[in-house]
Each structure stands twice: as C-alpha cells, then as structure tokens.
Design goal:
The chain has a seven-stranded mixed beta sheet. The chain is an alpha+beta fold and about 325 residues long. It has one domain: Ribonuclease Z/Hydroxyacylglutathione hydrolase-like (Metallo-beta-lactamase, Chain A, 4-Layer Sandwich). The protein has helices spanning about 1-15, 60-65, 70-80, 120-125, 140-145, 165-170, 175-180, 185-200, 250-255, 270-285; strands at about 40-45, 45-60, 85-95, 100-105, 135, 150, 155, 160-165, 205, 210-215, 215-220, 230-235, 240-245, 290, 300-305, 310-315. The longest helix has 18 residues, at about 270-285. β3 (about 85-95) and β4 (about 100-105) form a beta hairpin.
Length: about 325
C-alpha cells in the first residue's frame, strides 16, 4: 500500500515537472545594480562628521599625472586598479552642535551624470540643504563648487559661502577668463556661475587670513593647487580632522611619490611642497585626514614611510556616542 502511494506521488510530481526530494526552480532575482546612499558618519569629539559623496568620475590619471604613463599604470596595478580610475568626489558635513558646516559642494551638473549626487545623499543622511549654515570651499574648481547652484537658484539658500580671497580674485575675474586658453575658460565659467548668485545675495565672505570660520572649524592657507587652495582643520575635545581638499588625487601613486603632481595644479612646485608640509604635520600629530578624491569615505591616518607615506583608512564604526 505504501509503495503504491509513493509511486502515485512520484507520477504526479513528474507530471508537474518536479522530482521528489527537490524544490521547484525559481526565477532568478534581477540584479539591482545601484549603490547604497553615499554617506558615512563618525564622531570627532563632540562633533558629528558625515562624509557625503557627490558620486564618482572616471579619470585617465596616466595622462593627468606628471609621471610616465607606464609608471603610473604599474603603480595602479599594485593597488589592483587600472585606468581610467573611478575617482571619488567627497564632501564633509560637520555638525558642531550649534552650526552645520559643509566643506565643498561637489560638481552639480558640471561633470556629467555620474556626479551631482550631493543633495540626495545629504537628504539620505538625515539633513536638508536649507539647514546648512556655512559652506567652506577648499578651492573653486568645478567639482568643488558646481553643486552650489541648480538652474541658477541657490541650492543652499541659508548658507554663507567662505573661500580664500586669492581664489575668488583669480577664478571670478572676467579679465583672467578672457586671457585664459580656450580649454581653460570652463574653469572660470564654472566658478562664476556657481559663486556669483551667492555674491549677489550677499552670502559670500572672502577669507583673507587663517582663522576660525565657526568655533572648531579653522581655515589654513595651502596655496599651490590653485592660487587660494585652502585646508580646513576641524577640532573638538583634542581630536583633529584635517580636510586637505585636492592636495592628493591618486593615492596609489602619490602616497609613495609625493613629488608627483597633476595637470590640474596651478603651481606644481608649490602644490608638491604644500602636500609634503601638510602631510608631515598630520602624520606627526596623528590627525585624521579627509581628502576630496581618495576612495570614499576618504578618511584615514598618515604614517611616514621612507620618502612617502602609508595611508591607514579609518576603522568602520557604528558607535556614534
């Protein structure tokens, strides 16, 4: 009787396309092919620091770095990278408890569809653009200021913009743009389109000397990459975060060889010297470093290593006490 029942079940299963002892095949789940919202949060003393991604952009760094393409490609291969390198564009949102300060504003629509994700990631991180009190700009290249404006309107309507006077005088000058080579005029146009609406609204303050932007956030001149390139130092309860802007672009090359410069540098010699000065100090102090173009979230420590540096990424944390 039992054998008859089993045989009957087997025949029924076969008719339905099943086999005893197996589960029916299911359709494969479709691939999602999107990344999670781009923000990373940590504490610095009493301050909350949120790294906010504007996206990534692929760069032909073997053509941009002032090193032979073969050497660049070899260095990249040691880090399991190849050209073009998918390069992060990181911004940093600092909540001091009394002020919400954004360091750099991403590219907006100026660098194509893979960037311009700043606002959606700020919102994903639990903030709104209108909550930001101050925006400090490391320099006025388009991938650092393009997100300030959308369709001519202020993206951050309640924020005051701070940037070094040397950069403002250079990039916002019509005379400088007129005499610039044709392939460089876009740098000036991007800066003007992004900053002028804030200037017209009385929401721009030029930095003329090192000092506090708000308590706990200090500017420090780091000229070379641009005429007014600026580093910002965030400090709370003895903990220090040094936001180095574009002192470095390609960690796989420039940590080992800090003297290697990039085509975007206005003054290559000064840029290389400033990288060495700021990195030496950060390594000596054990400060956390935040960089605009290292792999997201672009935060870590520097350790001196021969003629260069070793990069030690921050440890991932969920402890935000």
């Amino acid at each position: 009787m039992l054998k008859t029942k089993l045989l009957t079940l087997a025949i029924a299963a076969a008719a339905c396309g099943f086999t005893l002892g197996t589960t029916p095949a299911m359709a494969a789940a479709p691939m999602v092919k999107t990344q999670a919202p781009g923000y990373y949060r940590t504490m610095l003393g009493e301050f909350e620091v949120t790294v906010v991604s504007d996206g990534t952009v692929s760069l032909p760094v073997d053509k941009l770095l002032h090193e032979s393409p073969a050497k660049t490609q070899s260095a990249l291969a040691k880090s399991y990278l190849k050209v073009p390198v998918e390069t992060s564009v990181n911004t940093f949102l600092v909540n001091t408890g009394s002020k919400l300060v954004l360091i750099d504003a991403g590219a907006g629509s100026l660098f194509g569809p893979t960037l311009g994700k700043l606002v959606q990631n700020i919102q994903a991180a639990g903030y709104k653009p209108e909550q930001i009190d101050d925006i400090v700009i490391t320099h006025m290249h388009a991938d650092h200021v393009g997100g300030l404006v959308a369709n001519g309107a202020l993206v951050f309507p309640n924020a005051t913009i701070h940037a070094d006077k040397h950069d403002a005088d250079y990039w916002l000058s019509q005379a400088n743009m007129d005499k610039a080579p044709a392939d460089a005029k876009g740098f000036f146009q991007g800066a003007m389109n992004s900053l002028n609406p804030y200037i017209a609204a009385g929401k721009f303050k030029a930095i003329e000397a090192d000092g506090d932007i708000v308590p706990g956030v200090k500017s420090s001149a780091a000229y070379g990459h641009t005429p007014g390139h600026t580093v910002y130092v965030v400090e709370s309860q003895g903990q220090k975060l040094v936001l180095v802007g574009d002192l470095i672009h390609v960690g796989a090359v420039q940590f080992d060889k800090p003297a290697v410069t990039i085509a975007f540098d206005t003054d290559e010699k000064a840029a290389a010297a400033m990288r060495r000065k700021v990195f030496d100090q950060a390594a000596k102090e054990g400060a956390i470093v935040g960089a605009a173009h290292l792999q997201f979230p672009g935060m870590g420590h520097l350790r001196s290593a021969g003629k260069g540096y070793q990069w030690v990424p921050v440890n991932y944390t969920t402890d935000l006490k």
